[in-house]
Amino acid sequence: PVEETIAALDTLVRQGKALYVGISSYSAEQTAIAVAVARSLGTPLVIHQPSYSMLNRWVEDGLTGVLRQEGLGAIAFTPLAQGLLTDKYLSGAAADRAQNRNSVPADRVSEHGRSLLGGLNEIARQRGQSLAQMAIQWVLRDPVVTSALIGASRPDQLDENLAAIAGPAFDTEELEQIDALTDGVDLSPSGPIWADPSDS
To answer: What is the C-alpha separation between 33 and 27, in angstroms, rounded?
Structure first.
């Protein structure tokens, strides 16, 4: 239960084992409860860490509103959707050196998925950015998202990702194009972005 979890976090702070506490992946309703419980105990929550990307927008269904109302920031994890929002999957064959245990196998992305990623990549190209840069900047466009966790495995990836913060501001048309492409994206195992394993 939320109350027990927050009470345990409060105990850690009181014992000097933690300076600040936050939560991860709580729904809007759970977050509101957690904030109220933490506040009543005198140990306020300072951050929420949700998964959030162009392809995974569940936080927009109430959570970001609660965070704004309660004065919490969000640290987005998987802003690149486990590598989907990079150039690795645009051609349908990810480079071997780029594959790691957290990446999606290239043959798992369907033709529909590659088309969607290609559309997003074209918007990024017109902005003078890589797909990854645009994806990171998109997550950070909302002031409630204070930072994004990235999983760069090489210095050049880190440099590329950090350059996202210097990108041009999104205009209304770009945001509408992104919304149109990503509306209703289903990342569940049976979603259309994935290839049917039986077709391999």
So the answer is: 10
**What's the CA gap between 51 and 23, in Å, rounded?**
12
Helices (H) and strands (E) in the chain, counts: 7, 4
Least confident of 22-26, 55-59, 166-170, 194-198: 194-198
pLDDT tens for 144-190 read 999 999 988 889 989 988 999 999 999 999 999 999 999 988 888 77
Q: At what angle do helices 111-126 and 172-182 cross, to 10 degrees?
A: 170
Q: Where are the beta strands (DSSP E) in the chain?
A: 21-24, 45-49, 73-76, 145-148
21 DSSP β-pair partners: 45
Q: What are phi and psi of 76, to 5 degrees?
A: -75, 130
- From residue 98, alpha-carbon distances to 63, 84, 101, 103, 106 in Å are 33, 12, 10, 8, 11
User: What dihedral angle (degrees, nearest 10) is formed by the CA atoms of 173, 176, 181, 187?
Assistant: 140
Domains of the chain and CATH, by start: 82-143+151-199 (3.20.20.100)
| Range 97-115 average pLDDT | 71
Residue % of the chain over a pLDDT of 90: 70
Cβ-contact 66, 30 below 8 angstroms: no
